[in-house]
Specification:
Helix 2 runs antiparallel to helix 3 and helix 2 runs parallel beside helix 7. 59% of the residues lie in helices and 0% in strands. With 349 residues, it is an all-alpha fold. The longest helix has 34 residues. It is globular.
């Protein structure tokens, strides 16, 4: 017997698309795709949240080109706070270390403790690069670069689809995503940690190459970088714990898992695993960073879910309470004035 835990979205009542609307959509999406590829080649991959949002917004306009502009402007209005929060997040994490020496050795010890028996005492990053990294680019390097790039667009694209289909679920998605980002940012300030490539540069590990984007060079592409962090003014090389790359990947998959047929679950769950391999192999994160990131995802769903349940309970309880009307009493008439007895007038003798 199936147990439904979440209210199902109402059946769609949109009128069927006309052939003219279908042709208009194909033309608009073709123009968008050509412009997107041209921007890739000329500017770079959209690895900045504001830049990625512009392309996603243009994609929604092309997909629903028959809708009035008021609908498209409503999309921008709802998303401006999200983009501003992501921009503030990117800027603020650049100051998380405050010039202090980041944590590194305990992360190395943790990975060696968990996997040293299988890697000859090395951390998984060093072991993977010893076995897979070569001067020439292989197919797995290309795949790893594209998986790495997906971090910058998958979560935003999923949110855009939710906004178009069910704004209520979009709001639930954004509450959880915002909480996850805030928890990760707070940890960067409390516990600034360095990735494997930083540890290798500072003599704590043997040589580790930072190779997360080398696969793009095969196609002559590059990352546009973070526009708001131009010149690396606010970039932070030590925001490694937790790994929000894998946390975002798992978060998106879990959000859609209960509405997806079970036969597609292995394919969906392969995405956070592919992201984990990419980040560990490319020297961006330790496995302990990934495990902590996954733990944050679980805490996010638990905390936000409990908060939403408490909010619904409070609202339902408030709705069942009878309305309280102030008790008014009729004004009392003032007491009658008391007559002061007139003293007797003495008689004249």
């Amino acid at each position: 017997m199936a147990v439904v835990t979440d209210p199902q979205p109402p059946a769609r009542t949109d009128p069927p698309a006309s052939p003219e609307a279908g042709r208009r959509r194909i033309v608009a999406m073709t123009i968008w795709a050509v412009a997107f590829v041209a921007a890739w080649l000329g500017i770079g991959l959209p690895t900045d949240p504001a830049y990625a949002f512009v392309w996603i917004w243009l994609g929604t306009i092309a997909w629903h080109s028959d809708r009035p502009w008021r609908s498209h402007l409503r999309f921008a209005r709802d998303w401006v706070p999200v983009v501003l929060l992501l921009a503030a997040y990117n800027l603020s994490r650049g100051f998380a270390d405050n010039g202090a020496t980041p944590h590194a050795m305990e992360l190395i010890v943790a990975d060696r403790f968990m996997f040293g028996w299988a890697t000859g005492g090395e951390v998984p990053t060093v072991w993977l690069q010893e076995h897979l990294y070569r001067p020439q680019v292989h197919w797995w390097d290309i795949a790893a670069s594209w998986v790495y790039f997906s971090h910058f667009v998958v979560a935003l694209a999923a949110a855009a689809v939710l906004w178009l289909r069910d704004r209520h679920r979009w709001a639930a998605y954004m509450r959880r995503w915002g909480f996850l980002c805030a928890a990760g940012l707070a940890t960067y300030f409390i516990y600034p940690a360095a990735p494997p490539w930083w540890a290798a540069q500072n003599g704590l590990l043997t040589e580790v190459a930072r190779i997360s984007t080398r696969g793009w060079k095969v196609f002559g592409m590059h990352g546009a970088g973070n526009v708001l962090n131009a010149g690396q003014i606010a970039s932070n090389p030590v925001a490694a714990m937790p790994s929000l790359h894998t946390a975002w990947a798992l978060f998106v998959v879990l959000f859609f898992l209960h509405t997806t047929r079970r036969r597609w679950w292995p394919l969906l769950l392969a995405y956070p695993l592919a992201m984990t391999f990419t980040l560990v192999y490319s020297g961006e994160h330790y496995v302990i960073d990934v495990l902590v990131g996954w733990t944050y995802v679980g805490l996010t769903y638990l905390v936000v879910g409990l908060a939403e349940r408490g909010w619904r309970t409070w609202r339902a309880h408030r709705a069942t309470q009878p309305p309280t009307t102030p008790v008014t009493t009729a004004p009392q008439p003032p007491p009658p004035p008391t007559e002061t007895p007139t003293p007797p007038i003495p008689a004249n003798h």
